Amino acid sequence: MNAIQVITLTLLSVLAANAQVISPGRCPKTAVQENFDAARYLGKWYDIQRLPHTFQKGECCTATYSLKSPGVVGVLNSELLSDGTISTISGSAMAKDPSEPAKLQVSFFEFAPPAPYWVLSTDYDNYTLIYSCTDLGVLHVEFAWIMSREPTLPEETLEELHSTLSSMGVKVDKLLTTDQDAAYCSAMNQ
C-alpha cells in the first residue's frame, strides 16, 4: 500500500468515526439561489434537519446572520448541549465571487480555510436549504442543512427540499431532525 492510500484510508476512518457523510466521486455541480439577496437572508434561522457532522452535537440549534460590514455577513451559531450548557461559535461569511452571491465561504477560525456555504434555495421568510461539499480526491464529504424562520417547517416544504437534495445524490435518509421543542429549548431564549 502506498503512502497516498494509507493517508486516504486514515482520513476516511477519522471522518467515518466522526459521523461525517462521505460519498464516492466528486462534489456534484448544483444550481444555487438565483439573485440571492443577503440583506433579506439576515436574522435568525432554526435548524430543522441536517446531515450528521462532528461540529454540531446539540439540539435547539440556531444560526443568526447579521451584516458585519459591506459584503461580510456575521454568523452566530448556537446550540443547547446535553449537559444543559449553551454552546456558541461566531464567524463570518462572504461571497468568493460577487457574481455568485449565493456561494458563500464561511470562516469560524482565523487560520482555518473557509468552507463552502451554498444557499441552494430560500424564500427568505420561511425556509432555506444550505449545502456544502469538499472534494477529497476520489471521494467527497458533504453537509446540508434545512432551516426555517420558525422552529417547525411544514411537511410539504420538507418533502420539496428533500427532493432537491435527492436530485443531487444527497442521502436524505441520513438527515437528522433537530429537537426544537419550545419547553426543552427555553434555556436558549433566556
Helix content: 10-25%
- In whole angstroms, how far apart are the ends? 55 Å
Q: Please count the helical segments.
A: 3
Tell me the strand order in the biggest sheet.
2-3-4-5-6-7-8-9
Return the average pLDDT rounded to an integer. 87
Main sheet summary: 8 strands, antiparallel, barrel
Provide the structure class.
alpha+beta
Alpha-carbon Rg, integer: 17 Å
Number of strands: 10
Choose one word for the global shape.
Answer: globular
N-to-C series of helices and strands: HEHEEEEEEEEHE
Task: Provide a brief overview of the structure.
This protein has three helices and ten strands, in the order αβαββββββββαβ. It has helices at residues 3-17, 38-41, 155-167; strands at residues 21-24, 43-50, 59-69, 72-80, 86-95, 103-107, 115-122, 127-136, 139-148, 176-177.
Notes on the protein architecture:
This protein has 190 residues and is an alpha+beta fold. It contains three helices and ten strands. It is globular, with a radius of gyration of 17 Å.
Features:
190 residues, alpha+beta, globular, eight-stranded antiparallel beta barrel
Q: Which helices and strands appear, and what pairs or packs with what?
A:
Blueprint: H1 3-17, E1 21-24, H2 38-41, E2 43-50, E3 59-69, E4 72-80, E5 86-95, E6 103-107, E7 115-122, E8 127-136, E9 139-148, H3 155-167, E10 176-177
Antiparallel strand pairs: 1-9, 2-3, 2-9, 2-10, 3-4, 4-5, 5-6, 6-7, 7-8, 8-9
